[in-house]
Write a structure and sequence with these properties.
single chain, 327 residues, alpha/beta, Rossmann fold
């Protein structure tokens, strides 16, 4: 089958995630292997509009697989929401003859790519890159494994202090719309309560549970809360608990952006490399406007317009496990 696209571009958009560099490396080296010219777009869609497009060769991506962040930088771009901005971006690709674009990011990045590909003659292939692991159609997103391991390591250290002082600790992890980081890190660190956006938080139940544990002289209690929990983050939970448990020693720890940084785990490097490889395969096979995901350890192709945030998808089974193990 004849290859109609001879030049491809790659960009990272939205929040950075550990493993993005591994995906960039895979796209560049797989593309070069198959005879494509490969270009890097700096600062996501903003760089596309401002013509910050540079040729990449195999040396450009040497020694980056272990690095966090993204060598291509990333930015949020209001101008790309407007037709004139997208038109300018397309003209910058067109003058270089770039016919395919790999977009590494989350659902916001894919929404932009969907509109872009519908309006102009450009084939967009997405790679799911977000620490929140909240894209429909894939079990895995780049950066999630590293973020969870970072959270687990930090919580383990906090637990040492918590045990030494018989305290209640409320630890806030990232997850504005999805509770996967809170769920996984909370179970892995033995949290007594895990609060996530997908489930309604009953603060009265938590207070009752803590009072019952106090009667059993179980003074050490760990609460992991996702930043997007509907009751609020760590500060709101703390305020409610202090009011009802005035004698308890309750502390807050907000992990914040530390979860986004750092060297990616082995799993993130492997999955990012695999997804980057298959993104280029899509151009070879003339697949258009899809996101490369992974389901049941197999590559799964998701239509670009359907690769949106997965809402409320955490099962009852997981929550039952949390309840039983925390008793």
């Amino acid at each position: 089958m004849a290859i109609k696209i001879s030049k491809i571009g790659v960009l990272t958009s939205g929040g950075d995630a550990p493993g993005m560099n591994a995906a960039i490396r895979a796209v560049v080296r797989t593309g070069l292997y198959h005879g494509f010219e490969v270009f890097g777009i700096m600062r996501g869609y903003q760089g596309l509009i401002e013509d910050e497009i540079v040729p990449l060769d195999t040396k450009s991506v040497a020694n980056i697989i272990q690095r966090g962040g993204t060598i291509l930088k990333t930015a949020r771009c209001q101008e790309f929401y407007e037709f004139e901005g997208r038109k300018k971006a397309f003209e910058n690709l067109q003058k270089r003859g770039i016919g395919g674009l790999v977009v590494i990011g989350g659902d916001g990045s894919f929404s932009g790519a969907t509109k872009f590909s519908q309006e102009f003659d450009i084939s967009c292939i997405g790679i799911a890159g977000t620490i929140d692991r909240d894209i429909q159609g894939t079990d895995y997103t780049i950066g999630f494994d590293t973020a969870v391991n970072t959270a687990v390591e930090a919580i383990d250290k906090v637990r040492d202090t918590m045990e030494a002082h018989d305290r209640i600790f409320i630890i806030e992890v990232m997850g504005r719309d999805a509770g996967y980081i809170a769920l996984h890190s909370g179970i892995a660190t033995g949290a007594e309560n895990i609060l996530i956006p997908e489930r309604k938080t009953n603060i009265s139940d938590i207070i009752t549970s803590l009072q019952e544990k106090d009667r059993r002289k179980k003074m050490v209690n760990l609460i992991v809360v996702a930043e997007g929990d509907e009751f609020g983050g760590a500060e709101e939970v703390h305020k409610a608990l202090v009011e009802k448990l005035p004698k308890a020693e309750i502390r807050i720890c907000i992990l914040g952006h530390i979860q986004r940084g750092g060297s990616p785990t082995c799993l993130d490097r492997l999955m990012a490399s695999r997804m980057g490889y298959y993104a280029v395969q899509c151009f070879l096979e003339e697949k258009k406007n899809i996101v490369v995901g992974i389901q049941n350890d197999k590559i799964n192709y998701i239509p670009l317009e359907k690769a949106v945030k997965a809402k409320g998808s955490i099962s009852d089974e997981w929550m039952k496990i949390v309840k039983i193990l925390a008793s």
